[in-house]
Design a protein that fits this description.
This protein has 345 residues and is an alpha/beta fold. Helix content is 32%, strand content 26%. Helix 7 packs across helix 8 (322-330). Bound molecules: flavin-adenine dinucleotide.
Length: 345
Amino acid sequence: MKNKYDVIVVGAGPAGLSCAEVLAKGGKSVLVLEKNNEIGPKICAGGLTAKVEKENIISLQDTGKIFYSIKFHFSKICRKFAESEPIVATIDRGKLGKIMLEKTIKSGAEIKTGIKVKEINENSISVNGQEMKYSYLVGADGSNSIVRKFLGIKTEKLLTTLQYTIPQKIQEFEEMEYFFDSRIFNGYFWIFPHKDYTTIGSGYYPKFTHKNHFNFKSSFENWLSSRHIKTTGLQLEGFPINFDYQGYQFGNKFLIGDAGGFASGLTGEGIYFAIVSGKEVGKKIIDLQYNCPGISKILKIKKNHENLLSLVCFFNDLSPNLGFKIVSFLYNLPLFKKIISRIVS
Ligand SMILES: Cc1cc2nc3c(=O)[nH]c(=O)nc-3n(C[C@H](O)[C@H](O)[C@H](O)COP(=O)(O)OP(=O)(O)OC[C@H]3O[C@@H](n4cnc5c(N)ncnc54)[C@H](O)[C@@H]3O)c2cc1C
């Protein structure tokens, strides 16, 4: 490691790797610091919407499993959203990390693993007693970002999640499914089949569930039992998803991906938003006049998602599942189906 870089990127998730690749290709000296020894694995359902392919980020053919339909269960009502083109795919996060790492290494960025950044200064960071100067610092260190904390930015909007990874030898699932029932909470359960395993999880935004005796873990376990899903001996995992976006540039410091709160508060989708924000900030550092149209685009998608979430929760609070019933009714009408598809995709 040198003692001065144009850019130091903290975190080698999808946001940090895509940003470093753009920067190194643009001629900047870049150091990426990752606390884990292995790049990629992360608690995640691994769903990639087709817009990832449209952005030329990754081909869906490189993923594990491709889906042409998704089932949405609104309490007892089920709606199947199907298209002739792939809608979504699932990918193992280890595999995604590997694909992205290869491209980033090829670009010339320097990547160091097993280094947890603990100390940030105005124009340098200290790692194991060595001081490294930067002209720009990029926080790509996820929902518990140390760079965000250094900048003094509070995080109030966090999705809480729980997830099991179920190997196929225990139980096999075919379809990608979402389940909503506001009598349980204003959140959702998901089933995302992969090639050799299935991620089954649940997520919600605590501010939208005002129940006195609500216990997230037992609600999730009860729901799994009601569907005869076996999890004995499997590890229950959870990690927050930050969707509290408060800006991406703070002088010579930037926040991208979950560190910047770019994920969707509605679906918890964050990989696409992380990659787009990473690439855009890379371009911005190369050319400070660049006005990041890609960031404006993802912020618009995110705003639509979160407005829909607020609206549905508002109606659910008037009467159990009313918001979900309205969405599922409107979804039957071709015009609204198009509008809703546009809002969530
Ligand atoms: C249960 C669950 C399910 C999800 N399912 C989906 C899904 O199906 N589809 C989807 O699109 N999104 C999903 N997400 C969200 C998705 O995982 C994130 O939005 C995405 O990983 C964000 O990428 P990132 O690069 O910003 O951050 P991360 O992927 O979190 O990467 C941050 C990196 O920074 C490193 N790091 C952190 N602190 C430091 C430090 N101090 N020093 C050095 N390195 C550090 C971490 O080790 C990590 O490698 C899910 C999230 C959860 C919790």
